Amino acid sequence: MSNKQIIYNTPPTSSIDPSLSSGTFRLHTVPRPEQVPADKVLVRVHYLSLDPAMRQWLTAKRSYIAPVERGAVMRGQSIAQVVAVGSDLSSQYQLGDWVVAYSGWQEYAVVGAREAEKVAVPPGGRPTDAMSVLGVTGLTAYFGMLEVGQPRPGDTVVVSGAAGATGMVAGQIARIQGAKRVVGLAGSKDKCEFLVRELGFDAAVNYKEPDWRKQLKEATPEYIDVFFDNVGGEILDACLARAARDARFAICGAISQYNAAKPQGPASFMFVISQRVTMKGFIVFDYAKKYPAALKELASWLAQGKIKRKEHIVPGGLEAAPQALVDLYQGANTGKMMVEVAPVGEAQTKAKL
Ligand SMILES: NC(=O)c1ccc[n+]([C@@H]2O[C@H](COP(=O)([O-])OP(=O)(O)OC[C@H]3O[C@@H](n4cnc5c(N)ncnc54)[C@H](OP(=O)(O)O)[C@@H]3O)[C@@H](O)[C@H]2O)c1
């Protein structure tokens, strides 16, 4: 049996080139591993996570994580199924267990126990939640909102990238905390309607409409107490100009700048001084010790219907991943973007998605 892999081929100059013949990545096929070392498991990848940070992992700049090496399998997390277990791990894993695996972009991966976290599905949950609302994106929203943003009853909270995986959870957590007004920024009319109708945001602004700054002003009549920013660039700039006195700006990401040859900082920086704004960047891994308690709370909010989630699953197998990653930066997704590497129907029967 074979194992397809997607290899990091050529550093992009600005945007990723999704062509698998001459682009950022190339397709490689190797035999599927048959022997599993005693301290490893063999997993079959079913759903691959696509993350905005992947563009930065391809840049040799100082960051929170080392870049992917050219010639290596592209880094990535997946929902995978255990298909073979090394002898030392037979008490920990069973064939058919679902795991969140640090597998990379390939159909099969040999990983150690630290790279294959078993998925415990809580009431009302499903295994793919472990890569979205009950995984890194949900945790990012949780700690960014609660530890950095610290919304209080009566606050106006604004979230950018609000219809994305992290943003939609962040906005709903602000609502749970008693925010007076939760406002989202997103890139289409449909996304804005989804935020208001399905997720209960008070207002949503489509930043692709020409008068979006005016709409943002009208949506924040008492200015912004907490801004959860996934986007950076002009949106961060406009929100700084709407900052309330002592506002907290939780800087989670800056997707508008990830593909830019020359990233832009905010021009309205003086509002940090005049409005005494606290602006703090964070990386979710900093809160790793608090993950178990956070996951428990997120799972209980999910079970109670206080948090809703959405997935955007791209069909087409492993080969679909490079184009899907490009599409993520174009806003193709509402909710967590994943690539279906192998349909669930092909999974072992023991554990079903
Ligand atoms: N700090 C951390 O530890 C941490 C951890 C995970 C993720 N993050 C960051 O969190 C952010 C969201 O990540 P995610 O995984 O949840 O992805 P996501 O929000 O589900 O997907 C990305 C979204 O960004 C929006 N976008 C793309 N280009 C944009 C632009 N130029 N201006 C405005 N919006 C744009 C698109 O929606 P529209 O249609 O609305 O444009 C797209 O759907 C990213 O910045 C990511 O790097 C940070």
Mean pLDDT over all positions: 95
Largest sheet: 7 strands, mixed
Number of strands: 15
What is the alpha-carbon Rg in Å? Answer: 21 Å
- End-to-end distance: 24 Å
Q: Characterize the quaternary organization of these chains.
A: single chain
Under CATH, the topology of the largest domain can be stated as Quinone Oxidoreductase, Chain A, domain 1
CATH architecture name of the largest domain: Alpha-Beta Complex
Task: Name the ligand types.
Answer: NADP nicotinamide-adenine-dinucleotide phosphate
> What are the segments in which pLDDT stays under 50 over at least 5 consecutive residues?
none
- Helix/strand class: alpha/beta
The number of helical runs is: 10
Order of helices and strands: EEEHEEEEHEHEHEHEHEHHEHEHE
* CATH domain class name of the largest domain: Alpha Beta
Any idea what the shape is?
A: globular
Please bin the fraction of helical residues. Answer: 10-25%
Q: What's the number of structural domains?
A: 2
Strand content: 15-25%
Protein name: Enoyl reductase (ER) domain-containing protein
GO molecular function: oxidoreductase activity, acting on the CH-CH group of donors, NAD or NADP as acceptor
Domain Enoyl reductase (ER): 23-339
Keywords: Oxidoreductase
